[in-house]
Each structure stands twice: as structure tokens, then as C-alpha cells.
Amino acid sequence: MDRFRAFDAEHPYVYRALERLTADRLATGATRVGLKALLEDLRRQLPAGVRGLNNNFTALYARKLIEDHPHWARAFELRRRRTP
């Protein structure tokens, strides 16, 4: 969790891009959004990728998006976290 917080603080544009990508998908009529697919889209969009963008951050970004946009909660499938 500390690595995620540090990464998110250092690269706030990643979260903003995920917000935009999520909103775009939902605006086209999608009812489900796969955050892993959004991260892959983001990696392709950024010229040099994002150093340190770890796949382990996927669920944490999904939870952050839901926290900031509760009306998106049904769009993401979340599983119980194993660690706090």
C-alpha cells in the first residue's frame, strides 16, 4: 500500500487518465470496466510508458476510483483484499 501511495503521489496524471478512460468507457454504454485493460491502454498511450506502474496497483486504483466516484461502483468487480 505504501508503494502505491508513493507512486500515486508522484504520478497523479495516471489517476486522472484512469478517471478519463473510465468515464469514456461508461459514456459509450459499457456497464463493466476492467481496470487491467485500462492500465494497458494507458501504457500504450504514454510515449515511454510509466516506470513503476505495477499491475499490483490495479485493485487499489479501482478502489480509489470507486471512493471518488461512488456511482461507478457497479462498473468494477472487486474482490476481498488479502492484506490491509
Q: Hey, roughly how much beta strand do the residues contain?
A: under 5%
Whole-angstrom Rg: 12 Å
- Uncertain segments are none
Distance between the termini: 8 Å
State the secondary-structure class.
mainly alpha
What do the pLDDT scores average to? 88
Share in helix: 55-70%
Return the string of H and E elements.
HHHH
Number of beta strands: 0
Shape: globular
The main pleated sheet reads as: none
The number of helices is 4
Can you walk me through this structure?
This protein has four helices and no strands. The protein starts with a helix and ends in a 16-residue tail after the last helix. It is globular. The model has no long low-confidence stretch (mean pLDDT 88). It has helices at residues 2-10, 12-27, 35-45, 58-68. 56% of the residues lie in helices and 0% in strands. It has 84 residues and is mostly helical. Helix 2 (12-27) packs across helix 3 (35-45).
Notable features of this structure?
56% helix; mainly alpha; 84 residues
Give the helix/strand layout:
Elements: H1 2-10, H2 12-27, H3 35-45, H4 58-68
Question: Short description, anyone?
Answer:
With 84 residues, the chain is mainly α. The protein contains four helices and no strands.
